[in-house]
Amino acid sequence: MKIVEKLPVLLAILFFTITLVACGQSPGVDHVTAEYILEENPNADIIQEHDSIFRNMADVRTEEQLASYEFSKGELQGEIKNQTTNIGDFEHLTATHLPEGTKIFSANSGEAFEKGEPGVLMAEVNGRTLYYQQIVLE
């Protein structure tokens, strides 16, 4: 039998295999969840804003690094509605450490902050400004 005669059969087998593989996969996670972070670190200082999770940058950056980024306050994103570490209670504008009513702003970055970095939020608490960087999947 010539290969040309086998081509329709081979294509049908290939299509069937791809369909089985695609249907058998569970939907992928395209963002980090509060559940994932809190299971890894129950003391994590995080904020959920819409479907994104932001972590306190002081956990991963020095004060000198944060000062060098020259962030400025952007638009008001809202106020913390709920403070909890209960995974089931996480939704938009929920935080683990920030008290309810804390105002959350977008942060505009200076030139020292690398382009392409994930988004940053600012929170003002008791006269201090805290910075939270979006956690993204690699």
Keywords:
138 residues; single chain; alpha+beta
Question: What does this entry show, briefly?
Answer:
This protein has helices at about 5-25, 35-40, 65-70, and strands spanning about 45-50, 50-55, 70-80, 80-85, 95, 105-110, 120-125, 130-135. The protein has about 140 residues and is of the alpha+beta class.
General description of the model:
Helix content is about 25%, strand content about 30%. The chain contains 3 helices and 8 strands. The chain has one domain (about 35-135). The chain is globular and about 40 Å long. β7 and β8 form a beta hairpin. The relative contact order is 0.19. Strands 3-6-7-8-2-1-5-4 form an 8-stranded mixed sheet, with no helix packed on it. Mean pLDDT is about 80; it is low at about 10-25. By secondary structure, the chain is of the alpha+beta class.
Gyration radius, rounded: 22 Å
The helix/strand order is HHEEHEEEEEE
Main beta sheet: 8 strands, mixed
Strand order of the largest sheet: 3-6-7-8-2-1-5-4
Number of helices, counting only DSSP H or I runs of 4 residues or more: 3
Shape: globular
Low-confidence region ranges = 9-27
**N-to-C CA distance:** 48 Å
The count of β-strands is: 8
Oligomer: single chain
When the domains are counted, the total is 1
Layout of helices and strands:
Blueprint: H1 3-24, H2 34-40, E1 46-49, E2 52-56, H3 63-68, E3 72-79, E4 82-83, E5 94-95, E6 103-108, E7 120-125, E8 128-134
Parallel strand pairs: 4-5
Antiparallel strand pairs: 1-2, 1-5, 2-8, 3-6, 6-7, 7-8
